[in-house]
């Protein structure tokens, strides 16, 4: 009986710990949605592509000399 109580308590603690890790992970400190790395990388790639297509001269400068 004591072993069953220990097992139940251990499972309860594990469930609380695992559940707490997933709480609030979608929100930033001001309540805004957090961005994932894939989202950020795709946004940066899209912005660079649009800038390159609209103004290709903006990428030639001091480093191209």
Main β-sheet, in a few words?
none
Helix content: 55-70%
Total beta strand runs? 0
The number of helical runs is 2
Name the overall outline. Answer: rod-shaped
Estimated structural class: mainly alpha
Q: Can you give the mean pLDDT?
A: 78
Residues in β-strands, percent: under 5%
Q: Measure the end-to-end span.
A: 79 Å
Helices and strands, in order, run as HH
Low-pLDDT stretches are: none
Rg calculated over all Cα atoms: 25 Å
Structure description:
The protein has 65 residues and is mainly alpha-helical. Helices cover 58% and strands 0% of the residues. The chain contains 2 helices and no strands. The longest helix has 20 residues, at 2-21. The protein is rod-shaped and about 75 Å long.
Question: Which key features would you list for this structure?
Answer:
65 residues; mainly alpha
Question: Could you give a short description of this structure?
Answer:
With 65 residues, the protein is mainly α. The chain contains 2 helices and no strands. It is rod-shaped, with a radius of gyration of 25 Å.
């Amino acid at each position: 009986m004591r072993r069953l109580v220990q097992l139940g308590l251990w499972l309860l603690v594990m469930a609380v710990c695992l559940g707490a890790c997933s709480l609030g992970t979608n929100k930033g400190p001001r309540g805004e949605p957090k961005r994932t790395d894939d989202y950020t990388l795709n946004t940066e790639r899209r912005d660079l592509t649009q800038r390159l297509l609209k103004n290709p001269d903006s990428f030639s400068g001091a480093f191209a000399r």
